[in-house]
Design a protein that fits this description.
This protein has 15 helices and 2 strands. The chain is mainly alpha-helical. Helix 14 runs antiparallel to helix 15. The mean pLDDT is about 85.
Length: about 300
Amino acid sequence: MKGKKRLLNNDLFLGYLFLLPTFICLGCLILFPVLQTIKQSFFDTNYVTGSNSFIGLENYISVIQDEAFLKALKIDVIWTAGSVIFQMLLGLLTAMLISKDTRMNKVIRSILLTPYVIPIISLVLLFQWMLNDTYGILTSFLVNIGVLEQGASLLASPATALATVIAVNVLRSFPFCMVNYLGGIQSISQDQFEAAMIDGANNWQKFRYITFPSLKPITYSLLILRMIWEFNAFDMIYLMTSGGPAQSTQHLPILIYTEAVGMFNFGRASAMSILMGIMLVVMILVFSKISNRKGDA
């Protein structure tokens, strides 16, 4: 009885006890599927043919040698880099422009947040309508100024489809970066800017030596968070192009989905998922190490 009373009076034990249901849920929803995926990646699993034989590392070898996988990886890297870089740049720019707490800026903030809060399917349908090759308003404008030929569309060309989807994704997701940067800018002491003004610093010097250094922790956090999110993003590209045209927007998540749901090769799809997870972990560790080094400096 004394032992039980001591445990119940132990704050650390009680903390873990209250967290136990959360650990159980996470184990069932995350850990178990991950372990099953790892196990399945070593099997030739096809529910159409009914095969489920152990083949060791053959799935991984075939995936690494597959040109479709390498092409999807390249597209995924371009998609992630383009989305994250322009989201953060646009978010920082808009945050600086509306950082002053005026009535007009409050209205502008609400308007700029609209793409992020509306359902993604609504946004995709809107841009598909605007980019339609027959009656799309953006397509008609580009045709009139000579950028596109009559009957063409940015989403229908392999040369422009990926850049177009990235642009739509940036428009939708930059408000997340904007809000984070806005909070960081408003937390900077105005005394620093007043002192810099007295010393004769211009706007660029204020940004370079005061604003940007103060926003470095937010920048590193956003970089890692957005990189994780975009590298795994599925809905935006799939809803807009389904990986087309001519697989020009088929990145790793769509390829894995196609391999599993379209071709029923769950073993290969599992191997692709594990390789994708490993690459993501490596990228996170590299960026975390770089940010820690710069933080210590």
